[in-house]
Structure formats: C-alpha cells, structure tokens
Inverse folding.
C-alpha cells in the first residue's frame, strides 16, 4: 500500500554527497508544560525515534469531501472513500518527498515509511544527532504526579527551505500525561445486584423502566431508557471496536459473569476479538483485568447485541507522542476491513499538545471518518476544568481530542428525569473553530449565555460534547465481582452501541453505514434526541456551563431516542 516511489527515491538520494549545513528556521515552540519538570539534557547517546510528517497533496480538498459525504442533503451522502481515493488527497507531492529525503540523506539518516499514504517517515537516531538535525536540545522531563519521564524539547527548527514540505516532527513538543481511568464508586455482591433488579417499574419518556435504574445502570436499563432493541444484529459486515490504552486489559471471564447477570437472553459465551499494535496484548489473568477495558467491552457486547466487537490493545511501544492515539488510526486506515464504529474512553487536556500535533491528529480522524468509520470519544470527567476535576484554573480547560470537529464527543447524564452529570466535560476548543454544522447552535448558546463566564472560554471555538448518554453508577464485573463506575467513559461505549445497531439496520436495507456522524446529528439527526435542560458541569472554581434547551456544552444535543434516531437515519 505504501508507494514504491519513496523507497526508490531514498535509495537514489542516499548516495548523494553531503552539502554544507542548511539555513535553519524555527518550526514550532511551546511554553513550559504544566505538571512536568525539566530534569536536564538527555544523554547524547540515547536513541530516540522521531516521525516526520510531510505536507499533504490536498488536505483542503479532503475536508470538503469529508463534509460532503457526511451531509444528508448531499447527493454524495454515504459515498465513503476507498483507501486508494484517500491516498490521492493525503500523499505528499513528488517534490516534497524528494526534498525531505534529500535532507535526511545529507545527514546520513535512513527512514521508513509508516503511514498508509506515505506522508509520514520514521527515523531512529541518537539524541546528539537529533539535536543537530533540529537545532535544539532534547531534555528529560518528569511527570510530577507519576514520576514517569519522557524526552522532549520546547522548540525545534528545520531547514528554511523545507518549511513548505514538513508539517511537523514528533514527538517533540507533546506532553500528554498518563491516561486517567474511571474510579470505583462502590462495590457490592452478586446477590445484592440481583436484588436491585427485582424492583418496581417507573415511566421515563413514555417507556417502562425498572426503578432500580435510578440507582444502578445495566444494559437492560439502557435498553429501557432509550428504547434500544435487545434483538441481535443480523449483518456480518457490521462491526464495533473498542480502543484500549495504558495496559488496560479486557477479561473474557468477567464478560461471561456480566452477561450471565445482565443479559441472560444471550449466550454467556458471547465474546470479542482481539487486535494489537505497538506491543499491545490482552492477558486473561483476572488480576490483570482493567476497570476501563472491562467497562468498555461489557457495555458494547452487552448493548450492541449481536454486533461483531473487537478490542484493540495499543501497547507502550509507541512513538507518536500521544500514547498511541495516532498510531491506532493509521493502523485502522491500513486495515483491509475497518470497524464501522470506534469507541474510545480516554483523552487528555487540549493544552498538552501544540497546534501542529492536534491538527495532525484531527486530520487522521477526518481520514478514518471519510472511509466510513464513526469515531466516538468520551468528553472527559472534569467538567469545565478538563479531563479530570481540578480547581487550580482561572480559565476553562477544553479536552482533547473532543475539540476535533471530525469526531463525536460524548458527555454524560444521570437520573430520572435525566440531568447533566456534574462531571461531564464540555466547553469550547481553543484550537479548532466552530464547524459549520454546529455554528447556529453555538451562536444561540453563546448569545443566551450573555456575560456569564465571560473571558473564561473561546466563544468562537468548536463546542463539545455533541451528544450524551447515562454515565452514572454503571454496574460492571471486575475480578468476578460487581462494582459501580461513573464517567463519560460509561456513556461513550453505550452511545457507540446505539450507532452500531443503527448501522446494522442500514446495512440490512442495502444502505451505507453512518460514518462521520456530526453533519447528520446536527441536521436531520437532531430529531432523534431527548433534550436535556437541567444540570451543569462545574470546575475551575465556577459552576461551569448549564444544560439548556437545544445544544449545550454539557450534554450536547441530548441523549438518544433509538427509534427516532433510527428513523432520522432512514433505516
């Protein structure tokens, strides 16, 4: 799949004589990162792996196509790209690849193409050579919370002649902190779980719901609350994937316990397939089972009934600077068969990455979405304070990658009637502008807000989350026992399961899967949501934003009404 021209050019250019050093110009820089301390220059002989992302042929054209095929009113709606079509937009020009390879050859550096379109090269060199190559000083930075260290710099340069040919070199300026996972809220025995289920019924949105769902959320609660069908999907081509990071492992024995307790109508042997990259794995010792991984798998297998589900384990051997977030997308783009829905319950604060890295990551989501995959991310659990709760902030901290307009960010609700969960992260990106599909919604919300929170957020930024779902007191099985868990990481696999089941209905009638969701959700799809109008998401010593009529940066468009959303999708 990688164009042979890059390998041929490399062989030719490696033989060239090295010219004098080129004039260098600053490519990117950043301020001192929050939560890290510089412990000194990295050892000169330490080898580091860097990636060089070359300029693309026509990313603006790809963006136009990505929106066009995702907009229900377009004649091209649902006509997702093939990989070959995608490559034509993303690949570097011949001049760009030749210029970059010549530069590397001058410095006696060999490179490997690592991206499907041939736009990204990987090099492994000593720190001393990296310092010379990029006119910088790489240092060792220590995370104040975890004590883990990374090698980074605060600025780097490239030859002035290559500024039109290289988008970024990474990891250089990224300071992503270790991923946080949901916390236990309590533990209880299996016997108590069963007793919870045997309670009276209440009425919610015209549907009968067990009263126990006010205290404990299970797959059947979600089915009752949102009208999600329990009948299994029928389409072999349908698929849903769960992304796993931070050595979180999904345990099959715990899944069996979970299904036996909460989905007795399906086989307890129902399981998931495994994919790995960057040294990922999925050991099955119960003591190694991950809270996040178990949650995500149990609420996809347990809600997206009959849909082929995979767990993608991304290991620690990544060099993309974002814990494998970019690697997993390139991995999926390069797969012959990709999942139609990708659910990710991890994230970080937007300020942890520089503009160039955030743009590169967002462009990768645009590519995968254009191929027909719906990408969903948890919005975070810190209210307006970011991915995790905190008060040491004077302005609101948007999370990433929720600010990228080419993915769907999922917030959380709780209770009956549903209100915004106070931990549901939401707000406005400081990097990405408001996309056209939500411009009217953002303008309305900001206008109604008036002077509230003035100066604490970017009123012209991309607003998030886009949608929401229950996220409080989810019951999971971990090491054979039952636990409660809270977080937008509960809401995300639940909403992903809704999309997977809608895709199943679309495929059954010969239609395309939904793919990049947002232009649909904010147009014809908005009729498929329960509007949430109460609750707020405090943080940064403020009450945050408040849920309101229409879209808001706490619960987005609202929670799903399955039948209405199915009808809006034309299935």
């Amino acid at each position: 799949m990688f164009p042979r021209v890059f390998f041929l050019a490399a062989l030719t250019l490696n033989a060239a004589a090295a010219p004098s050093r080129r004039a260098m110009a600053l490519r990117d820089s950043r301020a001192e990162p929050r939560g890290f301390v510089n412990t000194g220059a990295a050892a000169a002989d330490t080898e580091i792996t860097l990636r060089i992302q070359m300029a693309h042929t026509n990313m603006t054209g790809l963006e136009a196509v990505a929106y066009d095929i995702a907009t229900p009113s377009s004649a091209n709606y649902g006509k997702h790209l093939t990989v070959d079509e995608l490559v034509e937009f993303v690949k570097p020009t011949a001049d760009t690849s030749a210029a970059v390879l010549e530069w590397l050859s001058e410095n006696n550096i060999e490179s490997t193409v690592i991206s499907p379109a041939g736009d990204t090269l990987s090099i492994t060199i000593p720190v001393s050579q990296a310092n010379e190559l990029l006119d910088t000083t790489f240092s060792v930075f220590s995370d104040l919370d975890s004590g883990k260290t990374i090698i980074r710099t605060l600025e780097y340069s490239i030859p002035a002649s290559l500024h039109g040919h290289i988008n970024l070199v990474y990891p250089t300026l990224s300071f992503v902190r270790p991923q946080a996972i949901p916390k236990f809220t309590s533990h209880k025995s299996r016997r108590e779980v069963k007793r919870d289920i045997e309670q009276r019924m209440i009425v919610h949105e015209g549907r009968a719901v067990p009263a126990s769902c006010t205290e404990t959320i299970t797959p059947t609660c979600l089915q009752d609350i949102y009208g999600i069908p329990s009948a299994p999907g029928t389409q072999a081509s349908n698929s849903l994937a769960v992304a796993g990071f931070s050595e979180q492992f999904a345990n099959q024995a715990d899944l069996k316990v979970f299904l036996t307790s909460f989905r007795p109508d399906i086989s307890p042997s129902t399981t998931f397939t495994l994919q790995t990259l960057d040294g990922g794995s999925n050991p099955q010792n119960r003591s190694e089972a991950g809270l996040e991984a178990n949650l995500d798998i149990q609420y996809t297998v347990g809600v997206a009934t009959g849909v082929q589900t995979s767990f993608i384990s991304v290991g620690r051997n990544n060099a993309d600077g974002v814990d494998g977030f970019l690697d997993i997308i390139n991995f999926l783009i390069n797969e012959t068969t990709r999942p139609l829905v990708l659910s990710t319950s991890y994230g970080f604060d937007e300020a942890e990455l520089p503009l160039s890295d955030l743009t590169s990551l967002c462009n990768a989501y645009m590519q995968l979405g254009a191929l027909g995959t719906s990408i969903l991310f948890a919005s975070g659990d810190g209210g307006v304070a970011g991915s995790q709760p905190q008060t040491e902030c004077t302005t609101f901290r948007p999370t990433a990658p929720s600010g990228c307009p080419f993915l769907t960010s999922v917030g959380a609700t709780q209770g009956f009637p549903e209100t915004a969960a106070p931990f549901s992260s939401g707000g406005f990106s400081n990097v990405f502008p408001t996309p056209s599909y939500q411009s009217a919604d953002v303008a309305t919300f900001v206008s109604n807000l008036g002077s509230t929170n003035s100066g604490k957020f970017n009123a012209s930024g991309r607003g998030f989350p886009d949608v929401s779902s229950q996220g409080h007191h989810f019951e999971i099985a971990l090491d054979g026992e039952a636990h409660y868990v809270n977080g937008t990481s509960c809401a995300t696999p639940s909403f992903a399961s809704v999309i997977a089941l809608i895709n199943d209905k679309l495929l059954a009638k010969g239609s395309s899967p939904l793919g990049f969701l947002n232009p649909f959700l904010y147009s014809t799809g908005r009729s498929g949501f329960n509007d949430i109008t109460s609750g707020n998401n405090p943080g940064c010593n403020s009450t945050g934003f408040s849920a309101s009529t229409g879209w808001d940066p706490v619960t987005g468009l609202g929670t799903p009404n399955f039948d209405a959303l199915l009808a809006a999708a034309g299935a």
